[in-house]
Amino acid sequence: MTRRHGATLAALTATVVLAASACSGTPASGAAVDAATRFYAAVADGDGAAACALLLPDAAESAAADEDATCAEAVTSGEIGDELSSRAGGLGEASAHVAGRQAQVLFAADTVFLTRSGSGWVVTAAGCDARPGRPYDCEVQA
Fold first, then answer.
1. Cβ(63)–Cβ(51) under 8 Å?
2. pLDDT of 68-88, one tens digit each?
3. Which one, of 83, 122, 81, 86, lies nearest residue 101 by Cα?
4. How many angstroms separate the CA atoms of 77 and 69, rounded?
5. How far apart are CA 55 and CA 48, in angstroms?
6. Can you tell me the distance from the alpha carbon of 64 to that of 70, in angstroms, rounded to the nearest whole number?
7. Dist CA 40 CA 90 (whole Å)
């Protein structure tokens, strides 16, 4: 994977989320899972506009720049779109860890990072693979 923009943010988010006393099964964690699930449903449906609406604007811009396309095209086609579509087909059950305004949603096929924005959650990184002792490697991130 060649998407490395914002590795520091993903690493910081992972550290904060995992190091803080995380909450599972709370309304906030359910809302974070819902946002991550809606993001991947939009990707699976080929609805790039809906998927990008669920991204932090910096993450949407980064995806577009990485693919030299619009965000909607980037998350549904090309290298990023292929990777996200592949993951969308095997997400499985989700669990969430929430610490303040940050959340980490764990699926069988992905780890998604989110932040609160207004009254909801936006995806800051998706298509992420853990790398022990190193920041997550994410296809899309701010």
1. no
2. 999 999 999 989 999 999 999
3. 122
4. 10
5. 11
6. 5
7. 10
